[in-house]
User: Which sequence fits this backbone?
């Protein structure tokens, strides 16, 4: 059997049980955006790591080295944000083909440094080595959060409102623009920027983790159709999501109409938006939304709700249930 | 300018200063076997990461998947050992070509698990992703040690005795056997095993860190001619190393004679032995050597001494100074 037949999550399922008996108390292992290891009496550390390989995760001729350095750190900061934690240090492993220009690497490190500077997160170590052909980047990151207060995927409760902290689909739109070599219009360039320079919602995550009504949280890296399922499986719940409520940027809406793209599919299955997906106690929603608006000058957007039932997403459009299949969304039929 | 012109350490020199102003107190950043982040009142965490890429760090058809899984963790455990720390958890990022057999990965994880089990170090997280062509493995690891008691490269003092915890050169000998496709005799196989299944000196590191006379420590990954230089540069010292005192296994000695290899070069420039290199206060040496022998049933071997002066290794052979150049060791000439 080949690995592509079982996929990433199939492989993780195979190995995650193997190490559980070695876990010490106060540690959280495989299965969330980050692992948790104890820190002091008031805080925990959260740790995660992400691997980016040329021609799989990025096209070297379509992303500038500065953007690549920035994005390598951004996607990891997003995982720290998803726990409601604050980043404290990063680790960079880099496999470099021999013919790489030092100037290219300098620019890559400038992009990495710029974002490190913004969130005051030092590079603490790593590994530098040759690579045969593909530029290979692994970033590890450590954050800290209040002890026992990390927001886990397993914390969703029935009746919770499902919210996101920003637009979905822009990054996937940018990828479409790149893959189809669309002209570099202002709108197209903006979508590409969303894909290359995602802003990790670190401050949003920290703020949300302080609100007692926020239960489960994770970041949107694979698209909500996949990401929300992780919350549902970890929490043993079901969800209803209303496609009409998913926040879409004017730019994406415009380009989508012009190009005839499937908007619903882009916003649910397109990944790499790196906004946060959280579930909020219904009774606290109004005050949390008001607080979020005051602090961040934009809305925390409700897109659905958590219900009892087997782990699945019930998609609604114009108040009717629809099903997601490989061609997109269809009307629900038994 | 191409990266191969400045090399790994040239690149690290370029970036290590960029992040220093972001370091919080009690943190140690780039420059040692591990970074250090504070834990509780009694302990620190140490963290490191290592990237292994197919055809650069291993030949997939010459190392079994179980050995590869084992070695990926072993080289990181060795960095934890080098700080005098105890491993508490690991992180595995793996980039997998689509055509990889699941059975291959199962065997790889079995090797990883076997060593995890031995040192009671759980896999806490990671990343699984596609790779275009080359199997790519990044392991991150967290350890803990007594607060402020990690053994750093910068701690060597004049008059210290330079010691190693085991044979040097076996792993390099094994690599020679592999690269030259030598027949699989018992001796050759033993050298290959040293290369594929290095035993990290975790217990030795923990024990040495408890002895007050042990000053600087690191692990031998690139060969002592390179590794000891890191200690000398970090400590601002010079060293004398006596080639005759470097511990060599009977097997390596035998194969070296038969094949006409340059033994001195193998044991000083050959890497991946993953024994520990430390500097010990001269006055404590006898008792530390005696204690080491009692606990580990083998010798802590003295190979040289730390002296004042610019950071360089003064090699001695048969009481005469020799110089190391690309052809090997020559008699010293002004």
Assistant:
């Amino acid at each position: 059997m080949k690995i592509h037949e079982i996929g990433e999550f199939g492989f993780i399922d195979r190995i995650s049980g193997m190490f559980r008996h070695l876990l010490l108390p106060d540690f959280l292992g495989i299965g969330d955006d980050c692992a948790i290891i104890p820190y002091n009496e008031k805080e925990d550390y959260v740790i995660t790591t992400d691997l980016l390989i040329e021609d799989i995760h990025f096209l070297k001729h379509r992303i500038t080295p500065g953007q690549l350095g920035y994005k390598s750190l951004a996607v990891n900061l997003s995982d720290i944000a998803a726990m409601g934690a604050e980043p404290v240090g990063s680790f960079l492993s880099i496999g470099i083909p021999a013919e790489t220009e030092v100037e290219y690497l300098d620019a890559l490190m400038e992009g990495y440094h710029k974002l490190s500077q913004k969130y005051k997160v030092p590079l603490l170590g790593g590994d530098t080595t040759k690579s045969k052909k593909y530029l290979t980047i692994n970033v590890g990151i450590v954050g800290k959060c209040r002890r026992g207060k990390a927001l886990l995927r397993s914390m969703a409760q029935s009746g919770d409102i499902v919210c996101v902290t920003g637009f979905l689909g822009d990054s996937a739109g940018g990828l479409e623009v790149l893959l189809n070599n669309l002209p570099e219009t202002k709108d197209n360039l903006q979508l590409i920027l969303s894909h290359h320079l995602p802003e990790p919602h670190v401050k949003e995550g920290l703020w949300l983790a302080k609100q007692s009504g926020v239960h489960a949280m994770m970041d949107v890296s694979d698209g909500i159709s996949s990401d929300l399922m992780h919350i549902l499986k970890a929490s043993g719940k079901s969800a209803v999501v209303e496609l009409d409520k998913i926040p879409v940027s004017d730019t994406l809406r415009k380009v989508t109409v012009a190009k005839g793209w499937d908007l619903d599919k882009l916003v649910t299955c397109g990944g790499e938006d790196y906004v946060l997906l959280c579930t909020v106690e219904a009774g606290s929603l109004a005050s949390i939304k008001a607080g979020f608006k005051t602090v961040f000058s934009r809305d925390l957007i409700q897109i659905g709700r958590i219900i009892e039932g087997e782990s699945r997403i019930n998609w609604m459009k114009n108040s009717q249930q629809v099903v997601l299949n490989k061609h997109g969304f269809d009307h629900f039929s038994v």
Summary: The mean pLDDT of chain B is 94. Chain B has two domains: 3-146, 153-331. The first strand of chain B starts at residue 35 and ends at 38. Residues 153-331 of chain B form a domain with the Phosphoribosyl-aminoimidazole Synthetase; Chain A, domain 2 fold (CATH 3.90.650.10).
